[in-house]
Amino acid sequence: MLERDDFSNRYKEGKPIGIHEFLYPLMQGYDSVAMQADIELGGTDQKFNLLVGRDIQREYKQEPQIIITLPLLEGTDGVEKMS
């Protein structure tokens, strides 16, 4: 998990990392295992989570999914990402 730049930098600086921040990529990754996903689409902000899914699939002896990332969509304000 410390491969993620944000986590690595915060760890080095002694800043806290919440347990929910670790669990989210793991739970999203396990979704790929449970669904035996062949391909998964996500925004560029989800790249780390999608790659975690590939790692978990390998552990479960599944073929790692193909991931496709797309640019984030702007919300109606033209600034914030659409949720």
UniProtKB/TrEMBL annotation:
SUPFAM superfamilies (UniProt xref): Nucleotidylyl transferase
One GO MF term: tyrosine-tRNA ligase activity
Short name of any one Pfam family annotated for the protein: tRNA-synt_1b
EC number: 6.1.1.1
Record keywords: Aminoacyl-tRNA synthetase, ATP-binding, Ligase, Nucleotide-binding, Protein biosynthesis
Keyword Protein biosynthesis on entry: yes
Keyword Transmembrane helix belongs to the record: no
GO cellular component entries: cytosol
InterPro entries xrefs: aa-tRNA-synth_Ic, Rossmann-like_a/b/a_fold, Tyr-tRNA-ligase, Tyr-tRNA-ligase_bac-type
One Gene Ontology biological process: tyrosyl-tRNA aminoacylation
Reaction(s) catalysed by this chain's protein: tRNA(Tyr) + L-tyrosine + ATP = L-tyrosyl-tRNA(Tyr) + AMP + diphosphate + H(+)
Protein name per UniProt: tyrosine--tRNA ligase
